[in-house]
Structure formats: C-alpha cells, structure tokens
Amino acid sequence: MQIGVTKFPGTNNEQDVLRALKSLNVKGELIYPWEEKKLEDLDALVLAGGFSYGDYLRPGGIAAQSPVAEKLIDFEKNGKFIIGICNGFQILCETKILPGVLTTNLSTKFICKWVNIKTETARSPLLKNLAPIIKIPIAHYEGRYYHNASGIKKINTEDSVAFRYCNEQGEITQESNPNGSMENIAGIVNAKGNILGMMPHPERASFDYLGTDFGKQIFVNLIEEIKC
Amino acid sequence: MVSYSGKAKDVIVLNDGEVQINFRDSISAFDGVKKEELAEKGITNCLTSVKLFEILNDYGFNTHFISKINDSQLLCKKVTILPVEVICRNISAGSFCKRYGFEEGIKFKQPLIEFFVKDDEHHDPLITESVAVQMKLITKDEAILLEAITRAVNEILLKIFDLISLQLVDFKLEFGRTTEGQLLLADEISADTMRLWEKKTGEKKDKDRYRQDLGDVIVHYKDILERLNSIQKLPEYKPLSTVQVIIKLRKSVLDPAGEVIFRSLSRKGFKRIESVRLGKSAEIVFNTVPSSDLQSEIEEISEKILSNPIIEDFELKIQHHSEKSEKEHFQEE
Fold first, then answer.
1. Which residue among A12, A89, B45, B291 is buried most deeply as judged by most CB within 10 Å?
2. Is the same domain home to B104 and B189?
3. Exactly one of A14, A86, A120, A142 is catalytic; which is it?
4. pLDDT < 70 regions, chain A
5. Domain range for A106
6. Residue B196 sits in a domain of what CATH number?
7. pLDDT band for position B324 (cuts 50, 70, 90)
8. A180 CB near a chain B CB, below 8 Å?
C-alpha cells in the first residue's frame, strides 16, 4: 500500500500526517511538487497543510499550478482517494477539483484552536464510523469557505458537505462558526466520494496524548478503502 | 472585380481570408478637393508599404500584409477596417497646428496619440477616446490596445528613419479585425500617411509637398524608398509590453481586510470614508510588442491563474513598454 503525502515549499504538516499513518502501520511517502510521475504508483494522496509557496496570490494558488497538481484530475478520475487538509483543501478548491474557495477569516485573525465539527453526509467511505461530534483543531488565516449562491445551492442538493462547525451539543450555530464560513462549512466531498477537503486537522487529533484521537478514524477509513 | 475603391487604392476580395490591394497613381488632399495623377506614385507607395510592413512583421507586430504580388499590388489578410484611425505625433504639424493655433515644429516630450473618425463627409474629425467608446466605434479595450500598438510602432519607426537621416514627425495607422477577431495593422504605411523631414535641413519629404505645392513629390517619395532599401541591418530593439492586472474582490464577497483598514482609518479621524476594498495588482512584462493575441493571452492568465472567478474580478491595461524615459526622448539630437 502506498500513500503519498505532498510536500510543497511551505508545507509544514507533512510529518504529522506521516506520524498518523505510521501509527496505523502505513509508511507514507513524501511527494514533492515535481514528482508527478510518482502519482501513478500511489493508492492515495494526502495534501498536507501549511503555507505552500507562501500562499502568494491566494492560499494554494501557486501549488495548484504545480506539476503534481496538474495530475490530480487524473488521480481523481481513476477513483483514487485524496484527502486535502487545510492548505490541501485550499489547493483542491484552487484546482477546481472541489467547488468553492477559502478566503480570509472574518475576524482577519489567524485562528488556532480546538473546534467541534459534525459529519453531514454518508456519501464518502472516508466519513464512516466517525464520532457524532468531533473535537478537532483548526489553524488558519484563510479558512472561510465561500461560494456564490448557486454554488452553495448545488453543494447542498448534491449532499457534498462533509463537515460543518458546531457546538459541543452538535448544534450548528453562528457562535460555533470560527471563521465566518458560509453555512458553517468545514469540509467538502466530491460526488464520487473519493476526494475530501477539510480545514480542520485530523492528524492533530489522532493520538490520545494530543487530547483526542477522534480524527484518526479518517485515516483508518482511507487505509481500509485501499485494502478492499 | 474591384470590391472597394478608395482615393488611392482598390481592394479586391480574393477569398474568405485574403484580399489584393492595388495601388493607383492618384493623389489627393483636403478630403479629395485637390486631386491628380502622378506617375510612379502607386508603385512607390506600394513598395514603401511593403518595406515598412516587412519591418513591422519582423519585429512581431500583427499586420495584414502577407506578400507582394508585384510592384503595385499586395496580398493581404482580409479585415474589416475599424471606423477610428490613430495618429501619433512626435512634432507638431498639420491639422494639430491648424486646430489649436500652435506653431509647427514643437517637439513633444511624449508622443501624442489622437483618434480620428474615418468620415469624409465630416472631414475625418478628431474624437476623444470616451466619445469613441460611448458611440461604440471602438471598445475601451480596443482603445487601450490601439494606443499601445501605435506607441510601439512609433518607437521602431523613429529608429528606422533616424538611421536614414529622416525625422519622423507624425503618422497615421489604420487597423482592422479579421473574422476570427484578430486586430491587425492595415491599410498602407507610406509617405502619404506620415510626415518625414530631412534631419539636417528640415526639408519636407512627404505628402505636404503635394498639399503645399512644393513640387517634386515623387522625387522625394522615391528618395525615401531608396533610403529604406539601403538599410543593411535593422536596429537592435527588444520589444516589451507591460500589462497591469488589477484583481478585485467581487462586490458580493465580504472583504474583512478592507473592513479593518476602514475601521483603522475612521479611528484616525478620516471620517468621510464610506468603504474600503483591498485588492491586488500584478505588473507583467512580456517580451513582445502589444497585440490582440497578447491581449487574449493575458486574459487567459488573469482568468485562470491570477484571479479566482468565484470571488474575484480583474481589470487589465496593456501598455507599450518604452525603451527610453520621457525626458530622454529628444536628447539624442
């Protein structure tokens, strides 16, 4: 089994992702922006978080023009799995593989804190067996999910919302929305269910010593899907 | 079969994409009030145009010129001529002096660009860019592009004529669009469409000889052509175009950064500000002369990479990237 983890200049979460995979006995392989040929041999890809290329132009905007990103469409079409975390989610939106865009937090502050999210769809195997309410960290400056009215409507009709920010009781409220995302959206899946993009960091909620391992289930699901 | 007959040329449509242009010996001035036939005028202007179009094609300009059929006939791409022609002036002369009462021979620090409507009935009147755009003669983008191309042509022609001891005073350019939408430099470029003065003496070598009855019109026209043909090596010139792309957040998208700046300015006592929106701007220098192809390329870059259409809009302005700064323009003499 081969799971790639992208490392662009400015990516800083790849080691955390590798550690989460390692705890599940999978050795992840770092994939650099110019190593698009390696994608053919991979079963899945995790786009790790960080600030690729300094987030110049727009977050993920330059990474989305890289050789690896150019091949993501083929990867997706072959039904292989991609999980984009934080900056990885931004890259998936910039490559148009997922709808919408992530822009500056409403508070104009970098937000680094624990939040609660809940799963909104069963359309992706990556979202199986998750706790009803997941406590998970976010760390971003540009995490406000935005789409135009027709885009938001389409996402809802197609049941593409993976996660929404909620309070501890699982209620989707304005107070529990950390960054001003439209309709509290924290993550999106594509129609086929093989691409997941999310602003929160499951790899940072994968060990008890970090506070919770609620996030680990996403990687467990990924590995199981590749096996079968 | 002549498809269109002008004051000095006939245009014959050959097929969907090509025309043949025949240069006649007719010469006219003052909207055709004064006219006559001058032997060898057609050939001379045709060959001058060939030479100058070849040079401009060499430097990468998009022109309608394909090839010479014979000494008085050109094979050109078929275009629909824009109703606005462009004049570029380095030194005051002609209608500029008549219109404003300024004397002839004032050297401009920066070349002047003027638009004129092609309309004999109203004596080809001067038109401002805003009127031309308002009256839908040309679009705003076309106006910007026409100016950029004309300035670049001026820079090259100044160098070419300087090599052969001639001062380029002013010139007129006409443009046309192909059915595919490409903007091309069209019509002719000859002593009929520009003013050229002998560098040392200031002697007029162009159509003013005919307008002002100075005589020897064709002698001077032929001298210009001979000098052009004597050029062994084209001057060094690195063509550059600058494009300014301004990326703005769409009005419907919240701009927290703009909001913070707004609040900060308000606190500082700037009370008359209604709102602030923060955008981005990129300046891209291309190593080519301005053209409609370049315009399409920049639009693609701006739409696909520089902006994200979900949240952003963009505006762009294409400019000729001048080799020299304004103040150096006439210091060489």
1. A89
2. yes
3. A86
4. none
5. 3-227
6. 3.30.470.20
7. low
8. yes
